[in-house]
Specification:
By secondary structure, the protein is of the alpha+beta class. It is built from 4 helices and 5 strands, in the order βααββββαα. The longest helix is centred in the N-terminal third of the chain and has 14 residues.
């Protein structure tokens, strides 16, 4: 699969890696797994968000990476990287719902 990244995703990853340097290797492994995947179901620790049409999350340790699936090009866009304690609060879920509308 082809992967694109938003500025927000990259900024969030950078912020969390400063706090936990071991996270770098885990994120790298996930990205390699996504690149090797032929379909979304092949991505480890990946689940579809129930309240959306095309938004998924990947579990990475205590963090969640949210992405949008763009079917026509076998491509995804990594949108958010957030700690699990904040990933499912009302504000975050509203942002995620808006992703599927774009």
């Amino acid at each position: 699969m082809k992967i694109n990244y938003t500025k927000r995703f990259l900024k969030d990853v950078e912020k969390f890696i400063k706090k936990d340097p071991s996270l770098r290797a885990k994120i790298k492994d996930v990205i390699i797994g996504i690149e090797k995947a032929q379909v979304i179901q092949d991505i480890p620790q990946c689940k579809k968000i129930q309240s959306s049409q095309s938004v998924y999350r990947i579990k990475i340790d205590s963090y969640r990476a949210f992405f949008v699936d763009i079917n026509e090009n076998n491509e995804i866009i990594l949108e958010y990287f957030i700690h699990r304690s904040k990933a499912y609060n009302k504000e975050s879920m509203n942002r995620i719902k808006n992703l599927s509308k774009e």
